[in-house]
């Protein structure tokens, strides 16, 4: 721990920063962060009585889930898992960390965002950055050549968090992947169908799924005159088109990446194109593109894809978009990304505005081979649903609707209006538990009936089983409906049955 | 990466180590580990064609879960979560890492087993060691003074793994805790009831739940003449009694910890005692122990506890055992631990043999106060089910019984005996998905009927929906029962209904 003088110095310095930031009208986020740092330093100074104080927070870019958020999360996961199971997927799990070298060379420029563990002796480890690379490692390690699996787990990225937008450093991915050598584009089409089903069922509003193909991008770069060794760099610049204007992207290509302006302009013409089956047909007529082997393969497969999507009746939401690039190094074929859109109410033009990506994926035929001692390839295609943004939207919806979300499933509270009945309450509660009834009892010797009823109101417990001397003598229980306040005497023998009858079956 | 010469040097050195270990007749484990290191170094050298090779493994002490293991895991979690919900618990989640200082000073001697993250700029972070300290941090941070919550998540300990016994470095904990100021021992008794219900439902064989109290231990140490500053050290030595003999434990007390032999002998008399309500009564008559304030409180509460356990009808499995200590620093009152036992078949004495701890917990009234700026206390009691050992046992059982575990829930495979019907198969499959039916289709243009039926046999899919030219013309589907090989023509309009009717409702 730093000493007091040092910390006070730091606080002064931090205070300066805050003032300067305010003067410079810096973004609100920056100020908030600097103020947080200031408060942390203050906390480290401790209270006046010398007691060391803890900084009470979760690490930057992470959060706790409270019971209400967990209830929403459970609902979302159930929807997603049901969809994955409907498509016949099994599930696996892998450790939260991998050998550092397992992740090396898989993520291109993003590798700097990987969390490493401290070297405490033994192996060098890193937290997983996604679920795709661990999946490929799993396939190679166990010599599995075909599987359809889902995996729902947290991944870790030392990115700049923007938590109000649902961008965290610890976040869930829900992955669905199909590994195996199959006829072209059938599993690829199923992945897109899966995304379509999930986004429809979650009722988040309208969405579109953009598709493109790495081979079409590569062919396009080639015919536009991009040198081979610049493909990946230019690709990751194109990937910024969803957030930046064409002018900005062109400037980066020409200025930073050293591309000839004419080449950039030719790319600019292609990346403006979007459509469906027809666009693929049209580009197959493009005299230059159709001469490129990669582009030809990609465009031919794109036609297959749209034919299958037609059979799945989902082409109204899918757009073949030549500007879609996706940054990760390991994609080799089709790529896709789902975005939520909102009708632009401000303008009468009804232009659609993207409010962010919620799922993405593609084909990665080379990744498993990178792990296999003999370089044996296993073709894979998959999709990852990024549900943090989904949680944010559903949380806001729940708050706006003022709908009461129950965080427990308790069916009945065992209560009493009289004193000295703790043991009788515990005995009855235990009987209910043993009969599979979800039951609670207050942990007080002599709670007031009012506070017992209040507990039901607050937590949504629908029934109260009330006992008193009289009820015990008669072998009955007074069963009260919290909402209607109706009470009936029920024989102790039939109590379980009566509670089950009155509980809404979920 | 080290260069070839360096690595070859290391391999030679490692080879030396292996030889020496063998000579010294070192434990098998050590040899296995050294050989693994050797193989890793060899792998780093790469193949002869110069291709860099990966070490294909998960980090030490961790494992993947394959689909069969996941099916068992899902079943165990469902049992445990149902029990937690039956007792009215909500759930929360916290990040996998915490600020390093959040974990500091909570685990006593075990702190050395905490995984730290590398300092990559920003906060210093550690992986969570249990779910209890993050829970206490959560309560203090959100000023929550009462809650009943469960939390199921992975925790991390750099311990010596013994994976065949289910001891891993990454493992699940299933925690159930009750926070709040209540009348004595009521929530404590409920925690023990929860453990009893879970172990009964999991059908792992017979078990016992040992209980003791930190205050009784402290009182016992005091009357035995243990100096105050040695309480924690002696306590963690007593904790070893389940694995070591009394002689070994006494040697550590006297030799390592510097306790007077007479004091050790007096402890030895107490820790041999076990019983129930009666033992608590008897010890309350002990002229020395009953004079000690802490012991008196602990013994009085122990009587309360057994009274409640009597009402819950579970005293036959609960033992008041003065040798139970539990290592963690934060316990302040009752402590308990559940062990699986097997009747000793070898000896006719029918002595019970413990095969390991599967759950443990206790009361920790001071932990939340350590996080609260004003030291405001929130009394807590909880239990943690350590299910890795449970998984191991159930996996072995499943293997022994040769019972086929399904890893998917697919109800029907859409198939064809004829060529050129891929599009019709996809169309029908999509219709079934949209109707909520779990359906699969092979990703081949023209798969053989036999290989389609084989897929059903292998994965346990009970139904096949077969289409051909004839069926398409007539608007029917041939629905085949895989087990009985019966086939019936079903109108396409009623297909969904027919599949639902024939599917076993789960």
TrEMBL record, chains A, B:
GO molecular function annotation: ATP binding; histidine-tRNA ligase activity; identical protein binding; RNA binding
Source taxon at top rank: Eukaryota
UniProt record, GO biological process: histidyl-tRNA aminoacylation; mitochondrial translation
Domain Aminoacyl-transfer RNA synthetases class-II family profile: 61-394
InterPro entries: aa-tRNA-synth_II, aa-tRNA-synth_II/BPL/LPL, Anticodon-bd, Anticodon-bd_dom_sf, His-tRNA-ligase, HisRS-like_core, HisRS/HisZ, HisRS_anticodon
Its EC number(s): 6.1.1.21
WHEP-TRS domain segment(s): 3-59
Keyword annotations from UniProtKB, A to Z: Aminoacyl-tRNA synthetase, ATP-binding, Coiled coil, Cytoplasm, Ligase, Nucleotide-binding, Protein biosynthesis
SMART domains: WHEP-TRS
Catalysed reactions, semicolon-separated: tRNA(His) + L-histidine + ATP = L-histidyl-tRNA(His) + AMP + diphosphate + H(+)
Residue ranges the record marks as coiled coil: 4-41
One of the record's GO cellular component terms: mitochondrion
Entry keyword Transit peptide: no
Matching Pfam families: HGTP_anticodon, tRNA-synt_His, WHEP-TRS
Family of the protein in this entry: Belongs to the class-II aminoacyl-tRNA synthetase family.
Protein's name in the database: histidine--tRNA ligase
Species classification: Eukaryota, Metazoa, Chordata, Craniata, Vertebrata
Gene: hars
């Amino acid at each position: 721990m730093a000493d007091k003088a040092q910390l006070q110095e730091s606080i002064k310095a931090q205070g300066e920063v805050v003032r300067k930031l305010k003067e410079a009208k810096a973004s609100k986020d920056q100020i908030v962060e600097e103020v947080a740092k200031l408060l942390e330093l203050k906390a480290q100074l401790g209270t006046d009585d010398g007691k060391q104080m803890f900084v009470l927070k979760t690490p930057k870019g992470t959060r706790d889930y409270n019971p209400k958020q967990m209830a929403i999360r459970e609902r979302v996961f159930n929807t997603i898992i049901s969809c994955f199971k409907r498509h016949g997927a099994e599930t696996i799990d892998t450790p939260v960390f991998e050998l550092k070298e397992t992740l090396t060379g898989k993520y291109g420029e993003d590798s700097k965002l990987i969390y490493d563990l401290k070297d405490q002796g033994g192996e060098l480890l890193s937290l997983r950055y996604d679920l795709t690379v661990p999946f490929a490692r799993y396939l190679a390690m166990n010599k599995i050549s075909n599987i359809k699996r889902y995996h729902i787990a947290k991944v870790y990225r030392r990115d700049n968090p923007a938590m109000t937008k649902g961008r965290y450093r610890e976040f869930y991915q829900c992955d669905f992947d199909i590994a195996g050598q199959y006829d072209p584009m059938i599993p690829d089409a199923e992945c897109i169908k899966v995304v379509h089903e999930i986004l429809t069922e979650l009722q988040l509003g309208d969405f579109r799924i953009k598709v493109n193909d790495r081979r079409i991008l590569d062919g396009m770069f080639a015919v536009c005159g991009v040198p081979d060794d610049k493909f990946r760099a230019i690709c990751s610049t194109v990937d910024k088109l969803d957030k930046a204007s064409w002018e900005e992207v062109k400037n980066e290509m020409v200025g930073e990446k050293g591309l000839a302006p004419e080449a950039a302009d030719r790319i600019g013409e292609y990346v403006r194109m979007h459509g469906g089956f027809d666009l693929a047909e049209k580009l197959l007529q493009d005299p230059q593109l159709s001469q490129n082997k990669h582009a030809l393969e990609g465009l031919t497969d794109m036609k297959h894809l749209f034919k299958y999507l037609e059979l799945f009746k989902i082409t109204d939401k899918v757009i073949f978009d030549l500007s879609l690039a996706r940054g990760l190094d390991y994609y080799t074929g089709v790529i896709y990304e789902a975005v939520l859109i909102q009708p632009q109410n401000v303008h009468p033009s009804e232009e659609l505005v993207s409010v962010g990506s919620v799922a993405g994926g593609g084909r990665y035929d080379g990744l498993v081979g990178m792990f296999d001692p003999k370089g044996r390839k296993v073709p894979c295609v998959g999709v990852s649903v990024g549900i943090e943004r989904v949680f944010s939207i559903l949380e806001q919806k729940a708050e706006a609707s003022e709908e009461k979300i129950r965080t427990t499933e308790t069916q009945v509270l065992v209560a009493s209006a009289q004193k000295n009945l703790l043991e009788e309450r515990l005995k009855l509660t235990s009987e209910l538990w043993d009969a599979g009834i979800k039951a609670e009892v207050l942990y007080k010797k002599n709670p007031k009936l009012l506070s017992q009823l209040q507990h039901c109101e607050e937590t949504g417990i629908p029934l109260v089983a009330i006992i008193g001397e009289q009820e015990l003598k008669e072998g009955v229980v007074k069963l009260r409906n919290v909402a209607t306040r109706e009470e009936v005497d029920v024989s102790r023998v039939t109590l379980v049955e009566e509670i089950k009858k009155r509980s809404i079956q979920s």
